[in-house]
Design brief:
Elements: H1 2-28, H2 32-69
Helix pairs in contact: 1-2
Length: 70
């Protein structure tokens, strides 16, 4: 079970880093089409990190509930 939590945390961290890099790239580009592409990538990274963070929270609640039930 620890592997799942660590994997989710790593996935969330990668998503946040990807979102930050995409945002910086969107701000630095001069072309509107490129900026739009980078914003789309940023949104996908944000979705990934959000899902991973929420899954990590559910996993933590499950572990606590399992300990309490014992």
């Amino acid at each position: 079970m620890v592997r799942i939590g660590r994997s989710l945390a790593l996935l969330a961290l990668c998503g946040w880093i990807g979102a930050a890099v995409s945002q910086l790239s969107a701000l630095r580009t001069d072309d509107d089409e490129d900026a739009s592409t980078w914003r789309d990538r940023r949104n996908r990274f944000l979705l990934l990190s959000s899902v991973a963070t929420n899954s990590l929270a559910v996993h933590a609640v499950y572990r606590v509930a399992k300990r309490i039930r014992r």
